[in-house]
Design the sequence.
């Protein structure tokens, strides 16, 4: 059983917890992380979600997931990236680029600078079917085709990545 901290609409922990898989009460939020590993060529390490997953099966995406009880956003970023791709996020190679709010969660969007080769990526077999380095243009084309999850903030994030 996975438990999440519950946040109010001001991103303050309420001291309550939520069990994953159950509907959140109105006004309750949880914390999600999206992670964009980026290399010196400006390519982004993306992953193909397993066909057996309940949410967006078989689509390409970036690494992400929900923070569990007690985790802050950076710790969740580190855990998810290591679990799903075998890539290390440190304070030296990572930065928080954006934060968004959707109807029941806050999403922190991370950039992790890495030069890991695709051969050294370690896929989490339960969740990840494949991985590849892709240019932003390829990812945009995949979004238009419907094969990559359409992140509404993607264009803004690209401008931010280019500046850093």
Sequence:
């Amino acid at each position: 059983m996975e438990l999440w901290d519950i946040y109010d609409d001001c991103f303050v922990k309420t001291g309550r917890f939520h069990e994953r898989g159950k509907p959140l009460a109105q006004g309750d939020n949880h914390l999600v992380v999206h992670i964009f590993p980026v290399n010196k060529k400006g390519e982004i390490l993306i992953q193909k979600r397993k066909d057996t997953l309940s949410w967006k099966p078989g689509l390409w995406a970036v690494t992400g997931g929900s923070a569990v009880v007690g985790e802050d956003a950076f710790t969740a970023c580190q855990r998810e990236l290591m679990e799903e791709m075998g890539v290390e996020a440190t304070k030296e190679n990572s930065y928080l680029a954006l934060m968004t709010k959707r109807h029941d969660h806050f999403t922190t969007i991370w950039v992790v600078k890495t030069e890991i080769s695709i051969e050294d990526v370690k896929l989490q077999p339960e969740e990840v079917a494949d991985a590849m380095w892709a240019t932003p243009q390829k990812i945009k084309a995949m979004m238009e085709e419907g094969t990559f999850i359409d992140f509404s903030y993607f264009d803004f994030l690209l401008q931010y990545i280019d500046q850093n």
